[in-house]
Amino acid sequence: MSDLALVLNSGSSSIKFQLVDPERHATDEPFASGLVEQIGEPEGRVTLKYAGETHTTTAPIPDHNVGLDMAFELMNEHGCGPAEVEITAVGHRVVHGGILFSSPEIITDEILGMIRDLIPLAPLHNPANINGIEVARRILPDVPHVAVFDTGFYHSMPPAAALYAINKDVAAEHGIRRYGFHGTSHEYVSRHVPEMLGRPAEEVNQITLHLGNGASATAVRGGRAIDTSMGMTPLAGLVMGTRSGDIDPGIVFHLHRSAGMSIDEIDRLLNRDSGVKGISGVNDFRALGELIEEHNEDAFLAYNVYIHQLRRYIGSYMIALGRVDAITFTAGVGENAANVRADAMANLENFGIRIDPERNAERSSLAREISTDDSPVKVFVIPTNEELAIARYAVELANRSR
Ligand code: AMP
Fold first, then answer.
1. What is the per-residue pLDDT across 159-196, written as a single tens digit (0 to 9) for each?
2. Which of 386, 384, 355, 344 is nearest to 367 (CA)?
3. To the nearest whole number, what is the mean pLDDT of the chain?
4. Mind giving me the DSSP string for 220-256?
5. What angle do CA 115, 222, 381 make, to 5 degrees?
6. What's the rounded mean pLDDT across residues 150-158?
7. Helix (H, G, I), strand (E, B), or coil: what is residue 74?
8. pLDDT per position as a tens digit, 82-93
9. CA-to-CA distance for 282 and 213, rounded, in angstroms?
10. Which one-letter DSSP state was computed for residue 201?
11. Residue 45 φ then ψ, to 5°
């Protein structure tokens, strides 16, 4: 084995980790993977998957320090920890890079300070990411640590797409602009498309649709993102599992003034109790599909609102790009829900989009085409792999810094 990267995705009460060989094929299992969960709760749990087996430890996990120590102990105990395998680099998912970061960075004290300065833009996410970085740097002080930003891919979006039409002084003072998120996934998938088309990346215009629990659409011209559906926060754009996506901002004032809801209550409503869940009661697409089969009207309505908004974005990006060579579906829903793909692409033959129903219905974990051979716009399903993308960046930067 050449290099192994440890990829960490640190949330407020959990840490997802993977040990990844960056040269492996996208569909291969990671070398090892696991999850530290319920940090700060009375009973925490660490799960490790390695060599076809799953190992679990349960104990109180007061903080991220203890959590990562426990994960490393479990990995060492089963022969895949830093005591046994050589880790070339640690890649950290960092949600918000603001306008400071356009690409991954080796983490120094200065870079960490800059990530800390961005906390006001991502008060829920960046502190947890920073926590993970600090803990991992303590445990692995001699290994390069690399930050990979969710926003990086959107750093060079044209101002017309990035700016909101609000008072420019207020916007500048408070960092209000479209940053975009899921960038690592959109970039990973969009880089694969020119290969599938057999054309140079500079020539390819494409739309990528990351449809998971969170969901976003991105328009990419010649490898560069020119627009994306998430905004200053990941609440904007498409309808998601529990997030509303785009709504009239006047609704917030109305809920506050007329319904007497506090800002925190509205935040919770729009982030956790809206989207598909808000209309149907369930946020998981498999559960939604089951309800639809039982002819549940709310589920049907939630699905239709979801598809309507998705098509709205696809249409607007077709106009923004002028010519579209490929549309790609990825993430949990995009990779698995053939009905979502079929309904999102239905009746668009006049726009050069022709889906092959048999190809679309086929289940596979591989990147594949689901349009007809004569479809002018190619439609693909390409499984995303953010951990592999982060591992590749981490090892590349670590090797360059040596
Ligand atoms: P992600 O955030 O990418 O993990 O995606 C999670 C979403 O993908 C959830 O809404 C799941 O219900 C959905 N999903 C996963 N597998 C399937 C499947 N086989 N059919 C439909 N939806 C699925």
1. 999 999 999 999 999 999 999 999 999 999 999 999 99
2. 384
3. 96
4. EETTEEEEES--SSTTSSS--SS---S--THHHHHHH
5. 85
6. 96
7. helix
8. 888 999 999 999
9. 11
10. G
11. -145, 140
Q: What is the pLDDT of residue 28?
A: 83
Share of the chain above pLDDT 90, in %: 93
Q: Known binder of ligand: residue 211?
A: yes
The response to whether 400 counts as a known ligand-binding position is no
- In the predicted model, what is the mean pLDDT of residues 52-56? 95
Q: Which CATH superfamily is domain 5-149 in?
A: ATPase, nucleotide binding domain (3.30.420.40)
Q: Is 301 left (phi over 0), alpha (psi -120 to 50) or beta?
A: alpha
The domain 198-386 is placed in CATH, from the list 2.40.160.20, 3.30.420.40, 2.40.50.140, 3.40.980.10, at: 3.30.420.40
* Whether residue 234 has its Cβ less than 6 Å from ligand 1: no
Q: Which atom of ligand 1 is nearest to the CA of 210?
A: 3
Ligand 1 centre to CA of 285 (Å) is 6
**Residue 216 has which token pair?**
């976003």
Domains 5-149 and 198-386 share a fold: yes
Q: How far is CA 21 from CA 99, 391, 399, in A?
A: 30, 7, 14
Report the chain's terminal Cα–Cα distance, integer Å. Answer: 19
Domain range list for the chain: 5-149, 198-386
Which residues are registered as beta bridge partners of 368? 381
Q: How far is the CA of 336 from the centre of ligand 1 (A)?
A: 7
210 known ligand binder: yes
For residues 187 and 153, the answer to whether their CB atoms sit within 8 Å is yes
Compute the distance from residue 337 Cα to the ligand 1 centre, in Å.
8
**What share of the chain in percent tops pLDDT 70?**
100
- C-alpha to C-alpha distance for 155 and 178, rounded to whole angstroms: 10
Cite the active site residues: 150
